[in-house]
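Lab notebook page, bench 4
Experiment: in silico fold of construct C2
Operator: M.H.
Input chain length: 176 residues
Purpose: comparison with the prior construct
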Amino acid sequence: MSEFWVFGYGSLMWRPGFPFEAQLPGILDGSHRALCVYSVLHRGTREEPGLVLGLDHGGACQGVAFRVTPGAEDDTVAYLREREQVTDVYVEAYRDVRLDDGSNRMVTALTYLADCNHAQYAGPLSLEEQLRIVLRCSGQEGANIEYVLNTVQHLEELGVHDDMLANLATLLRREA
């Protein structure tokens, strides 16, 4: 069987939860990381949804490409479906990812895109609207502010700077 890759752009980058034999920086063209998904379980409720990351249309996303351990492909897909498809707001897709390790090699990787036709799709929100939502919301996994600040910290530790999230984190620290 050929290599099986998974592309992570959020928590999968630092908490993949599946066996892998390589972890390389990668760039996915055609989608960007955004707080574009309303969270009705983990970081909000149905009555007061929080915001979590999704891959939205356009731009590019710096993330991590994982080469899954041979023999673990089926279990990895099953695990990711259970983790990412709780409310079906993400579309499972295979996309070309350019490895950013100096090789510029292209691999096809499984990833999860925000479904712009789903009721939980928030679409592009102003920085002020994101701030308002994140400051007030909390869900089963904790406060929305913790999610955003933790995400920014982990991204920075991995050498990934996301202007939008960094700007929001600065405002959140100021307000909190």
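Observations: Helices lie at 73-84, 127-136, 144-157, 163-175. The domain at 5-175 is CATH 3.10.490 (Hypothetical upf0131 protein ytfp).
Next step: discuss at group meeting.
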